[in-house]
Amino acid sequence: MSQTDQFIEVNRPVSTVYNQYTQFEEFPRFMEGVERVHQIRDDLLHWVVEIGGKRREFDAKITEQIPEKRIAWTSTDGKTTSGVVTFHYVDPQKTRVAVQMSYDPEGIAENVADWLGIVSARVKGDLQRFKEFVENRPQETGAWRGEIREPGR
Predict the structure, then answer these.
(1) What distance in Å separates the CA atoms of residue 90 and residue 2, rounded to the nearest whole number?
(2) How many CA atoms lie within 13 A of 75 on its CB side?
(3) Chain segment 130-148, per-residue pLDDT in tens
(4) Cβ-contact 74, 63 below 8 angstroms
(5) CA 89 to CA 140: how far, in whole Å?
(6) Tens digit of pLDDT for each residue in 66-76?
């Protein structure tokens, strides 16, 4: 398994940043290689992505979602990936968004891309585009304030 850790500061309140991030079907507007995200239910997303010239589909289960704090996920089939996005209050108009993601590169192309740091660069670029997406809007495109916790947490 490989891992990437990236963060960015967004010039918007934590509630606005979190609300926008919960609009998963908007991800293709700022995530490179993401063709479509379909929210099947509150805790399950279907992803269609292009990685290294190959189209892949997989489902990801949200294992934890705490408003204005964190969203954690793990894939349930297809591409092996998991991670957490955390939202940190910096000041009334600034939020730090941090992404920690683990993934299992498959095949020569993905392993070379991982070795060259392309995955980390893509996540960093996605965060930069998310920042621009949020900052260039008068308000978030929606919000989901529900909470998800795995049993025992």
Answers:
(1) 29
(2) 15
(3) 999 999 999 999 998 999 9
(4) yes
(5) 17
(6) 999 999 999 99
